[in-house]
Write a structure and sequence with these properties.
The chain has 155 residues and is α/β, with parallel strands linked by helices. It contains 6 helices and 6 strands; from the N terminus they run E-H-E-H-E-H-E-H-E-H-E-H. It has a 6-stranded parallel beta sheet, with helices on both faces. Helix 1 links the parallel strand 1 and strand 2. Helix 3 crosses helix 4. The relative contact order is 0.14.
Length: 155
Amino acid sequence: DLTVMNILQLIPRLDFGGAETGVLDLAKYFSLKNHNSLVASGGGDLVKELAVNNIRHYQLPLNQLSFLAVIRTTSQLIKIIRQEKIDIIYTHSWSPVISGWLAAKITRKVLITTAHSNYQSFWQRYLMGLGRYVICPSRTTAEFLIKNSSQLEKK
């Protein structure tokens, strides 16, 4: 007996790119496995692909990092998480981690991050390390982040 999960993926925009097509592929896979798959982004060319696959999309300014934008986006995420009974918040970029982490803390949900790059900025590495689980698509990225981010040594 498998548990149905409600998974909300966050990405700044859904235009064509590696992380973006990964979000689309995962959303379709989660749905195929009978999980409730939702995506929030700032919009983009791939949103229509979500609609074709009956995957709900929420348009949020996840690429805006001003204090007011983060507060507004966090508030919107909390509403979505409660309304959709989200179990897992899954971010695919460092910018939505801020609102995603705050919303996860407030709602006591699991935050997962995927580090798609060898982030050169300390803050980007730090933010990606806020996930309970941090996924690295390559051993090179994992080794770089572990070497250059103290909180990732423990994960």
